[in-house]
Structure to design on (281 residues):
């Protein structure tokens, strides 16, 4: 009887898991990464920095939600809140938390929603909203010095915890889980791998020490698993995914080599444009 109850509970757990969408899985993984980041700041920086990040987290989600509700009410009541949560999580994870960035930040938040609601062809989004927001403010900062380049950095993902006297970047574990579970759910596993593998191999060419390469690898894996696979702005066919992934790896590594600011977001911005031109030619 006890074994029968365990079997029923297992089936119920599987059923509940299967009901979760790819967006639900992604939100869970990103929520875990955000929690790890908060714990890391509280543990390895100081209490005041942790409180500042906690306030910033709350403010970011409140501000993002407010802008979304205005756009949703005025322009498209069919938009779902999950997309906004994912965008807010990505910004929280890739933007530095200890630099004031009010004007550029407001521009970025607004542009993310402009991309979500307006920049479409045949009702299909052209840009990943986060890519559009960060890339556009980066480009504007070239011409208007008063606006700083968005402080996008993947150093904040490099939160390590001592396990058996080894500093282990736990983000790798959860990003890998997202690669295994989530990219397959959205049919973008070939795209993620075709971007991550060549980008990691190309990263071995410049002279980087171990810590620099770990940070580089985190940035590539996070981008490949969370950002580049966005279904609305990336290829669906396997052959196209492989070509697109390799091309993005070459472009982003090239931009990084020539010291372009925010090379991942600029590279994906260019990639979104080129893919839209190919699709809608």
């Amino acid at each position: 009887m006890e074994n029968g109850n365990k079997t029923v509970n297992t089936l119920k757990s599987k059923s509940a898991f299967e009901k979760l969408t790819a967006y639900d899985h992604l939100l869970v993984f990103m929520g875990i990464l955000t929690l790890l980041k908060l714990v890391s700041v509280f543990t390895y920086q100081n209490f005041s920095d942790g409180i500042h990040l906690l306030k910033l987290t709350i403010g970011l989600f409140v501000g993002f939600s407010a802008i979304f509700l205005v756009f949703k009410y005025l322009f498209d009541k069919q938009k779902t809140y999950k997309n906004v949560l994912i965008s807010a999580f990505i910004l929280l994870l890739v933007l530095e938390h200890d630099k004031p960035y009010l004007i550029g930040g407001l521009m970025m938040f607004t542009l993310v929603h402009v991309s979500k609601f307006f920049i479409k062809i045949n009702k299909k989004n052209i840009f990943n909203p986060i890519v559009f927001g960060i890339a556009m403010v980066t480009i504007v900062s070239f011409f208007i010095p008063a606006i700083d380049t968005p402080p996008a950095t993947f150093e904040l993902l490099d939160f390590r915890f001592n396990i058996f006297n080894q500093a282990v970047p736990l983000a790798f574990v959860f990003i890998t889980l997202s690669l295994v579970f989530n990219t397959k759910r959205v049919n973008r596993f070939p795209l993620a791998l075709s971007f991550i593998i060549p980008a990691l191999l190309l990263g071995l060419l410049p002279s980087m020490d171990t810590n620099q390469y770990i940070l580089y690898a985190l940035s590539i894996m996070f981008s490949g698993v969370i950002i580049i696979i966005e279904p609305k702005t990336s290829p669906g066919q396997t052959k196209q995914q492989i070509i697109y992934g390799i091309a993005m790896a070459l472009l982003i590594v090239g931009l990084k080599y020539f010291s372009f600011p925010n090379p991942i977001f600029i590279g994906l911005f260019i990639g979104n444009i080129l893919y839209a031109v190919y699709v809608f030619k």
